[in-house]
Design goal:
It is built from nine helices and 18 strands. The protein is an alpha+beta fold. It has a domain of 60 residues. The strands form five sheets. Strands 2-1-18-17-16 form a five-stranded antiparallel β-sheet. It has a five-stranded mixed β-sheet with strand order 12-5-4-3-13, with helices on one face. Strands 7-6-11 form a three-stranded antiparallel β-sheet, with no helix packed on it. A hairpin with a 4-residue loop joins strand 6 and strand 7. The longest helix has 32 residues. The two termini are 30 Å apart. The relative contact order is 0.18.
Length: 429
């Protein structure tokens, strides 16, 4: 009987390998025929999450520039540590004073994802409020970030306690023919003039413009500091906040205000918010030491995921860095770990659905991709899509499609990737 089972297993293995090779050959032919892929390094990996086996492997062992798909690793490490209970800030009450300090949580008064729980908690305190500064010992801009990106909102500077996403929101109003600033304090620091059809602003030594003939919004990064944080937080709660030194009070016995809202993870995965990603790495470091430090957070992440370490060179949490490298097989392993940790239901809740949500809202509109939930990553001439495909019978697969060093239009690359995913969906069972 044993020999029969062994023989049957051998036949199944041979049949699977034959099917995999056949699918690989079809993909290789279709890649060769795709003119937008000409000259690029194309990698494709598909992994069966239930049977734990690779079903497509085309250059999936080659290093790629991961861009924002490195946020998948950031998410994995953050969820392993915090789960669905994220710390807003830490606090201690003593001698008629309310002391609080940062956890690194980045959504306080955020213009797009504001979490009102922290402000509401501070407002109801009867004691005097004292902010204890917690140092961030990493540079405010990440290693390998492009210098010509720093004036844009997607390169907002890191800080120990971000406020309003560390950006100024400026809105042109057709009703009042004026500009609105949020936080309002910045109206006095950003000069602007009215032109015939637009406003001209001077911010961060650059001239920017907003339309006067249609509704328009601009986000400009500001330089964070502890004193500025206190000023902005005071404005937000209309209550004085004093700065205190950590040396003045023992922090033992402190408590943590937490939230179970999934807004932070959705901002990371659906909208690819870079400051959120960087802050999650700082939050990881803060669970082990007083200082918030990106390198320490990354070390802790890979201590939890030792098998991933050899497959990534990760220098930031967001993927803005040109120094990061990833192996597609490493991304597949990361997706497998995420699937094991949160399951299909939460994947469909937190990840954007292709052509429907977040950064994938118009990914490849000529294709029906409602079976894809994924994270995209783009830097100049490099594009990656990594996530999950659910087959016609709802069986989950992890996939990575990477097109590095392409020349041409990104939308054409996305359309070609969408076509490959549609072909794959027809083949998967």
């Amino acid at each position: 009987m044993k020999w029969y089972l062994c023989f049957f297993s051998l036949l199944v293995s041979i049949g699977f390998l034959h099917a995999q090779k056949k699918l690989n050959r079809k993909f290789n032919r279709s890649i060769a025929l795709e003119t937008v892929f000409k000259g690029a390094q194309v990698s494709i990996g598909v992994f069966d999450l239930q049977e734990k086996k690779e079903v497509v492997s085309i250059q999936s062992d080659k290093n790629i520039l991961p861009a924002s798909t490195i946020k998948l690793v950031t998410f994995l490490g953050a969820f392993q540590t915090f789960g669905f209970k994220l710390p807003l800030f830490h606090y201690k009450k003593q001698d008629g004073r309310f002391y609080f300090w940062s956890s690194g949580y980045p959504l306080l008064a955020h213009p797009n994802y504001a979490n009102g729980e922290a402000f509401a908690f501070l407002k109801k305190q009867k004691d005097s409020l004292f902010y204890i500064s917690r140092p961030m010992t990493s540079p405010v801009l990440g290693s390998g970030w492009a210098w010509d990106d720093v004036s844009y909102a997607f390169s907002a500077k890191k800080s120990s306690f971000p406020f309003h996403g560390n950006v100024v929101q400026i809105i042109s109003s057709l009703d009042t023919d004026s500009l609105g600033f949020s936080p309002p304090r910045f109206e006095q620091t950003i000069p602007y003039t009215k032109k015939q059809e637009y406003y001209e602003l001077l911010a961060n030594d650059q001239i920017r413009s907003l339309s006067r003939i249609k509704a328009d919004t601009l986000y400009i990064p500001f330089t964070p500091s502890d004193s500025l944080f206190v000023q902005l937080a005071q404005d937000g709660i209309a209550t004085p906040i004093y700065i205190e030194s950590k040396q003045e009070i023992p922090l033992e016995g402190n408590k943590t205000l937490t939230t179970t809202k999934t807004t932070l993870y959705k901002a990371l995965l659906r909208d690819s918010d870079n400051l959120v990603a960087e802050s999650l790495i700082l939050m990881l470091s803060g669970t082990a030491q007083w200082e918030l430090n990106t390198q320490k957070g990354l070390e802790m992440l890979y201590q939890q995921n030792k098998t991933l370490k050899s497959q990534f060179q990760q220098v930031d949490g967001s993927g803005l860095s040109r120094y990061s490298l990833a192996c597609p097989r490493g991304l597949l392993e990361t997706l497998d770990k995420i699937y094991e940790t949160i399951g299909s239901r939460n994947i469909k809740t937190l990840f954007p659905q292709a052509n429907s949500e977040g950064t994938l809202i118009r990914y490849a509109p000529q294709q029906n991709l409602d079976f894809v939930y994924a994270k995209s990553g783009s830097l100049r001439n490099n594009h990656v899509l990594a996530g999950y495909i659910f087959s016609k019978i709802n069986k989950p697969y992890a996939f990575v499609v990477s097109v590095n060093n392409y020349m041409g239009d990104k939308k054409a690359i996305q359309a070609a990737i969408g076509a490959k995913l549609s072909f794959l969906h027809r083949k998967l069972r």
